[in-house]
Amino acid sequence: xxxxxxxxxxxxxxxxxxxxxxxxxxxxxxxxxxxxxxxxxxxxxxxxxxxxxxxxxxxxxxxxxxxxxxxxxxxxxxxxxxxxxxxxxxxxxxxxxxxxxxxxxxxxxxxxxxxxxxxxxxxxxxxxxxxxxxxxxxxxxxxxxxxxxxxxxxxxxxxxxxxxxxxxxxxxxxxxxxxxxxxxxxxxxxxxxxxxxxxxxxxxxxxxxxxxxxxxxxxxxxxxxxxxxxxxxxxxxxxxxxxxxxxxxxxxxxxxxxxxxxxxxxxxxxxxxxxxxxxxxxxxxxxxxxxxxxxxxxxxxxxxxxxxxxxxxxxxxxxxxxxxxxxxxxxxxxxxxxxxxxxxxxxxxxxxxxxxxxxxxxxxxxxxxxxxxxxxxxxxxxxxxxxxxxx
Amino acid sequence: xxxxxxxxxxxxxxxxxxxxxxxxxxxxxxxxxxxxxxxxxxxxxxxxxxxxxxxxxxxxxxxxxxxxxxxxxxxxxxxxxxxxxxxxxxxxxxxxxxxxxxxxxxxxxxxxxxxxxxxxxxxxxxxxxxxxxxxxxxxxxxxxxxxxxxxxxxxxxxxxxxxxxxxxxxxxxxxxxxxxxxxxxxxxxxxxxxxxxxxxxxxxxxxxxxxxxxxxxxxxxxxxxxxxxxxxxxxxxxxxxx
Lengths: 391, 242
Description:
heterodimer; A: mainly alpha; abc type-2 transporter like fold; 2 domains; four-stranded mixed β-sheet; 18 helices; 65% helix; B: alpha/beta; Rossmann fold; 9 helices
């Protein structure tokens, strides 16, 4: 039987290697995700690298109006520079990230111990502006507290008594690394690609074969239906595997580029990690191809199959997309869910967390069982005569 | 030899075959003829194993199509109703794929492909990809892949449908030479002149029943008509567009 499986496998691999669409999906599509990610990591890295503990420069309009505030800022390590003439235009076009406006009456109002108004001009549609305005606002908050404390003290009240809490920020990541959040985007991207890689071949060899009218003569050859399904299945699995490997190598490259000098992106993707990821993903690849086979077999036409299978990769990618915004702690029961367990494990592998061996084992076995059940269904479908004649 | 016994097949409520019996003998060309929708293709599909009968049986060289599918499949060569090619494979690769599935060894297989290429005069396009093949070229490839394992029984569904005169004659010649080797040929066709020219025995099927069978002269005597078209019309009960 395996000899015939191999004959079908070889034919489908060769046939689809001559098809531009199959190759595009297996070799080129997987590059797009890592490419976009790499660019984002570099861009975000640049925006946030100034946000760390380093000195910051702040454009101020009306420096002459508030020498006291300007001196205070200088003490805090802020380099105060004069703002350009047209403040709003400059902030809008991005030549200045943020501008602090000190009004003309600042010094007299401070001396009179009344309330004065400061303005921060910022363009928050820029990530770097968002980071800067946070720093300026928190600095001004500290300034506000100090003045307030002085005024209270001058009235004979203990300032400390009125301050129940003091907040120290400790960021557990090494620096303000928004780039890390991008790491959470890798699993859904990866799962999407995994469900995409062999899809064209799966459709072409099932509903495509029926639509061309080549299925009926093929089934007359002395070959077990299961051998036919396995041969086609393995060919689609190979193309899925190629797409997965291409994407992993592209990610490795993207990480390498993002982690260049002066960047706070510290993740790398070693060859051993890549092999680990492939092992963890193998049962899911099998399940993905089996689902594609079942859908492409029961749909009536190539186009119908294409419509459904074009949407399919979004569904398993959803948990991963949710996890980008709401990370969860991995539990044992989660490892029984195909695609979800791989999303969690892949996240852990990428972040360099220690994997729980039982989690990996449960994920592998549960998804493998799921895949085998799906393959059995696909073989059953091929035993039905409706397969050839539709309906 | 193909023996069909009490074969019945329904699709939902529609009766396609209401219990048919006939035998296609070795060394003979048996023609299965009947109007559109009479059940010819359904009968052939059950014989060549892609459909299951509701009841009755088909034996090919003594092997049961339902219970010994692979054994039957090794003994038949089929030009089925569905006759699509793979657009990205060459003619040679098509024949090779089917030969391999029949378990032919490489050297023997390549030899047979070359022989078929000679018989069917396929030299011009044997190494071209099938995309853009003419009807005649496509038919030659489908015939060649049906013949590559030298099956003892040949089943042909409308083998010359859509072919020009020269190609049709080539197919007829091929069918006769296969019969002369003592092999069994069963084919269905609409073209009465073709049936008259190459069939040794005719089975007439209408509305799922066998309405007559015998040699062409036998059927003429039976119906009292002098040409096969009239015989056909009188047997199937269809005068004009019924």
